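Regression check, PXL case 279:
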Amino acid sequence: MSDPSPPADDQDTLRITPSATALTIAGSDPSGGAGLQADLKTFQQLGVYGMSVVTLLTVQNTLAVTRVHVLPPDLIQEQFLAVLSDIPPRAIKTGALGNVDVVHAVSDLLTDVTCPIVVDPVLVSKHGHLLADDCVVEAYRQKLLPHAFLVTPNRFEAERLANLALTDENSVCEAILRIQEFGAKFVLIKLGTVNGMSQHMLGVGETNYCIETPALRRNNTHGSGCILAAAITAKLALGETDISAAVHFGIHRTYEAVYLNTHLGQGIHPAEIRGMRRE
Ligand code: PXL
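Current build output:
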């Protein structure tokens, strides 16, 4: 007897690319707006099968992060090896890693990986709060950036990675160069609001591209950095080979997510991942 036919009205089922798999190596945000939860939701919305290796647990809601517990490196390694020996990801994203030992452990794991790796260096929040000490920055430079297909620092993270104040366009270009010299193939700096526009600078070889969307002065950017890097990772998992196309896609999906707003929580509302467009 043959299987019943698939449900004809299930758009998501019919629009899945079976080989599109992506893995996030990231921290947990139990309120669901950022971290691995945002990554998995974004992968799902974009038709990509999502997997996650948990690096750390946060206790947080939209108002505050009150505790961070980093998992032992060997537990992170075991999760990774279990997943990779079974379901190969077509693209990998890294998010919050927590401490030097975890950065080293994850870097070791990524040594033999051939799929593109998107590194979101969670070092300083977009509001300027330090999330990692200088040893972690140095570990990113020496160990993780050499594996990065794309690295997506915000302005403050780029300043720390490049050890350079971003004061004008020349300094942004110099920072991209320095970060590329650590081994990252492509660099996307999220510059924040400049002249009423949300600006990004993408470094591809010796050429830099400025990508802008209208700045939204809204209280709902929680998770937007994770969503951006996850949407780019999903696009790569779907087979996109043009980095500029993948980055433009991610920036536009993130703009829409911030524009839509979940209106959830009493603090910084999570951006709206539901209903994300795939084209
Ligand atoms: O967006 C950075 C980020 C990454 N990972 C976790 C987070 C956040 C921000 O809240 O909670 C777990």
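Comparison notes: The chain is about 35% helix and 20% strand. The radius of gyration is 18 Å. No diff flagged against the previous build.
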